[in-house]
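=== RUN LOG ===
request id: a7f3
mode: sequence -> structure
chains: 1
length: 553
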Amino acid sequence: MYIKNIQVLDHIRGEAASFDFSYGVNLITSLENGQGKSSIIKSIMYALGFDVKKFPNGWNYQSYEYRITLDFNGSVHTVKRINSTKRGYFFIDDTKDALTTIEFSNWLQKQLGLSMKLPEKDGSLGIANTTALLVPFYLDQDSSWSGILYKNTSNALNMYDEAMTKILEYYLGISSKELLNLEEREERTKRELEPLKSRLKAFEGIDELKSIQDYTIDFGFDPDDLVRESNRLVKNVNALLRKLRTYSQMRIAKLAELNDAREQLSAVNELIKFNRAALLGRKKEFENASNIEWQKNVIRQQFRLEDDFRNLGAIKQTLDIKIKQITVDVAGIWKAKEALVEEIENRKSILKNSQMLKNIDDYVNRKSRYEATQILLHKRNDTQNAVIVKEAELKGLQLDIRRKRKGLNKRKLSLASEYNGRISEFLRQLNFNSNSTKLPFLKIQTVKGSGSSNSADYFVHYIAYFALLSEAFKNISLSMPFLIDSFIKNETSTNNIQGLFDILFEELTKYTGQSFVSLIQENLKYIPNYDEFNMVQIPVPIMDKKTYQELEQ
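=== RESULT ===
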């Protein structure tokens, strides 16, 4: 991968910066510190999807648009990063479909011919994010010189387990795709085995039930007879309950009839009362009649009222008799119902206390217990067989992993020897004593120490790994840009500075890929023949309106 150009646009202020780069070594220079060298180095990494831990003050990176032009062996693409969300979105060339960080990592790996996967905290293998892809090729002036080697450069590595060791193993060719797949299958099998073992443990108490046999047990009776007798008792109780429902319905009907009769009686009583008042009125009217015809008419009305009174009296008597009879009927039904309820309760009590029923219950309970136990035993056996199969599968995978690692171990030992040799040689060139920290190969830890000598200790470890990667890439035709930002910021000794530059540029000139080094112009004196490299001078101010207008045309 070769970076041809980086553009940074501030759409709010209408300003932009644009820089072209060449293959080989690119020197990012400025007259003084604080003029934007680190901002450009960090912007390159950020445009490539790297999770940059810290930008210089005043560089409002989240509000900018980044455009970076990449060349993959002649296939040129422009990547645009716009922070429409916190995680950012990536656009490839002129496509309108945005890619997330992990989707962009997939695209980038495809262009590079990589397939890096890393073990996550839950043990599963996940596609490596862009920070993981790029972290061995970036030294940050703010965070690379303290804390754990490489890991302190970005927080995006925290999601992985032993991230840097796995990343370096992958690039150095001591962790093959086949081995990664075996390790992924191993972790998946372990996750599948865990719940099976937990389930098997839950079946431990079932062993005491193994003695339960199929219950065709001699209780001194025929279970079928017991079932028939039980059914007869149940039928009797059900018949009584049906009869009880009939009594209840009869009682409800009688009570409705009683209510109707009482309403009729109430109406008759009202009519009698009215008739009596009318008859009394006619008698008074007769006494006051002034002629014979009127008296005759009153007498006729009086006779009719007396007939009505006698008829109403007869109806009332009939209703009284009917009400008394219905009341007697209701009382009889209620009494019969109470007796029936008592009989039902007696039958239920007999059924409940029946030895036959107890024997049936015992039989059914024991039979059910046996059948349930058999189901559990079958499930336990199935689970046990599944555990055996999974454990055998896991052992086979672990054996394959050991064999594969053994095949890669020879190369690992050779790389460790070369790594240790380079560390020692670099320290010798710097005239550092034997007390300098030397981390074992692939032991990614904090480099203990303090002051400028501690920064140099970090430096020799980074360059030792870079040298190994540089050699490894020659065999696989892989090229990654290497960026180093102000690596002598804390150095005070002129001799040490010269030694650090000598070590760095000896390795950079041997590197077949692209590299970037930021420094102030004053330090160019430490680089022999620096004018042979591509010089990128940072203007002041770093962004301007003219560049923005040119880019947006």
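=== NOTES ===
The longest strand covers residues 2-10.
The mean pLDDT is 82.
=== END ===
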